[in-house]
Amino acid sequence: MSKTVQQSIQDRIASRNLRVAVLGLGYVGLPLAVAFAEAGFQVIGIDVDEKKVRLMNRGISYIEDISGDRLQPLVGSGALRATGDLNALDACDSVSICVPTPLRKTGAPDVSHILNATDAIARHLHPGMIIVLESTTYPGTTTEVILPRFHQEAMNLEVGKDFFLCFSPERVDPGREDWTTRNTPKIMGGVTPACLQVGKALYESAIESVVPVSSTEAAELTKLVENTFRAVNIGLANEVLLICDKLGLNAWEVIEAAATKPFGFMKFLPGPGLGGHCIPIDPQYLSWKLRTLGYTARFIELATEINTAMPKHWVHCVQDVLNDAGKPLRGSNILVVGVAYKRDVGDLRESPALDILTLLRDKGAVISYHDPHVSAFTLDELEMVSVTDLEGALAAADCVLIATDHTSYDWEDLYARAQLIVDTRATLHQEQDEILQYSQEQV
Ligand code: SAJ
Fold first, then answer.
1. Ligand 1 binding residues, C-beta < 6 A
2. Where does the pLDDT of residue 433 fall: very low under 50, low under 70, confident under 90, or very high at 90 and above?
3. Residue 321 Cα, ligand 1 centroid: separation in angstroms?
4. Of all atoms in ligand 1, which is nearest to the CA of residue 352?
5. Could you report the per-residue pLDDT of 145-167, keeping only the tens digit for each?
6. Do 311 and 426 belong together in one domain?
7. Given 2, 329, 345, 400, which is the most exposed site by the fewest CB atoms within 10 A?
8. SS3 for 84?
9. Ligand 1 centroid distance, CA of 348 (Å)
């Protein structure tokens, strides 16, 4: 009896006789392509960005998680190559989709990159193909958006029998060394049980632990719950700050004290707001989907309301400390220290520091910034360049606002040089063992 398509593809996975494609070679796709190549597969990376394709084919890594020493041998041996040509999908047996899923200006999901990838794959869909969507998206995308396009293009092929369709959310935290693509447990959901079996067999060959769930919707929601959990708890930490302001207490002292409880508490800290390409975005995918079903995800809406109001809160703090010193905000020199969305990265995406700078500028302040990881950027057509003389800038500033607590700063020295400080990260507090009583003007 001839083998079923599933048996045949699983045998080829076991013998590494499978041509694997990764579509989208960013901070998710490149490490995944390397993981499959290191597991013994022939891998082709596909990206519309010809610069990424060129660098990868020269064995030059543009992603901090992957060193050139790891990439070069894989490219040199031919195990891994990159192309911009989507027709390469014709010769591929599996394709993992790792494309961006941002928000539109309206706040609705932008799945255009997923649609482009889907249409390209549909044109090359053939028996035995495994398709795994990794991009974070709302529950239902795989079965309501991707699957119908495959059926339109290839009516004769049946999902779960002739081809296999799964969702497996990415869990890459750029710059992290302890949890990598290979050792971070990977959720996997299939459109059918056979899809799950095949997708799990493929990913288990390159990733240490694959956690099956009952459907692609469950897998899609799992990822959104992970990051919504963070956004809501960060929102709570920010509300604790607002509560402490009302009570004349220090939020960091209270939260650090609560964190001494060895069980039943997880520490999140107040800050300038919510930045990054994941945490501010992913919950909006979930709340949007629920709104289409006539349900309001109140925790998400409330956390969003609090987190997005934090930049305005901190600008009011600047106005208050200047006012106490008899200075108007208008015309005052305000130096923002750290603009990246979190410490020790150079990523500006959704950074609340940008909102703070815009609010300060709109109120007539003379703004400048320093960030060792961000040399320059454009703020609404205004070219911003990091000051080079930090000491001089600290002395010249009427007020310093600390937005990002890069570990390279000497906070004690910075505090000594600044006239007035608004510290959205309570940096000095983090450096000292015991919990110190802070007067409010230092926060
Ligand atoms: N933030 C706070 N207070 C906190 C923690 C974070 O204000 O207690 C702010 C950060 O400054 C930043 C934003 O929230 O602006 C997001 O910070 P994050 O630590 O969540 O970092 P991300 O955005 O890089 O989140 C990624 C996510 N990884 C994936 O989606 C695969 C997230 O799930 C990880 O938990 C997180 O990294 C991590 O733990 O580093």
1. 171-173, 226-227, 230, 234, 237, 268-269, 271, 274-276, 278-279, 341-342
2. very low
3. 29
4. 15
5. 999 999 998 889 999 999 999 99
6. yes
7. 2
8. coil
9. 13
- What whole-number distance in Å separates Cα of residue 269 and Cα of residue 101? 27
Tokens coding 232: 């809501």
Quick one: 58 and 171 in the same domain?
A: yes
- Of 214, 240, 269, the domain-final residue: 214
Q: Which of 153, 186, 214 is the last residue of a domain?
A: 214
Q: How confident is the model at residue 4 (pLDDT cuts 50, 70, 90)?
A: confident
Tell me if residue 278 is catalytic. yes
Mapped onto helix, strand or coil, the DSSP state of residue 197 is helix
Q: Is the pTM of this model over 0.85?
A: yes
Closest ligand 1 atom to Cα of 238: 7
The reply to whether 274 falls in a domain is yes
Instruction: Report the number of distinct structural domains present in the chain.
Output: 2
Burial 348-373 (b: 16+ CB within 10 A, else e): bebbbbbbbbbbbbebebebbbbbeb
Domain span at residue 149?
A: 5-214
Which CATH number do you get for residue 127?
3.40.50.720
In a domain, 309, yes or no: yes
* Residue 318 pLDDT > 60: yes
Q: Is position 221 within any domain?
A: no
